[in-house]
Amino acid sequence: MMERMQEAGLNSKQDEALGLALMGKTDTEIARRVGVSRVTVNQWRNHDEDFVNELRNRRKQLWDRQ
Q1: For residue 50, which of 8, 15, 32, 43 sits 20 to 30 Å off, Cα-Cα?
Q2: What pLDDT digit, counting tens, does each position of 29-38 carry?
Q3: With bands split at pLDDT 50, 70 and 90, how would you rate the model's confidence at 7?
Q4: Cα distance between residue 43 and residue 61, in whole Å
Q5: DSSP code per residue over 1-66
Q6: What is residue 5's predicted lDDT score, i.e. its pLDDT?
Q7: What is the pLDDT of residues 11-57, one digit of tens each?
């Protein structure tokens, strides 16, 4: 998993946030669990190209398994 994070340009908090986002958690819930502000999570979701792409890829993987 560490290799995927490095390839995607994500840090460990972002990787954890991705998992929580895939579980349907809100930005506020994610921020509390990861230890960052809600604004930071919102920035990742809306403005961090690596985060957005990885979230999209992981969602696609989940949909493809169903």
Answers
A1: 32
A2: 999 999 999 9
A3: low
A4: 23
A5: -HHHHHHHT--HHHHHHHHHHHTT--HHHHHHHHTS-HHHHHHHHHH-HHHHHHHHHHHHHHHHH-
A6: 47
A7: 999 999 999 999 999 999 999 999 999 999 999 999 999 999 999 99
Compute CA distances 64 → 18, 58, 60, 61, whole Å. Answer: 18, 10, 6, 5
CA 14 to chain centre: 5
Q: What global pTM score does this model have?
A: 0.82
**Rg value, the chain, Cα:** 11
| Sole residue written with tokens 């490095």 | 6
- Please answer whether residues 4 and 28 qualify as being in contact, where contact means their C-beta atoms are separated by less than 8 angstroms: no
> Within 10 A of 30 (CB to CB), how many other CB atoms are there?
24
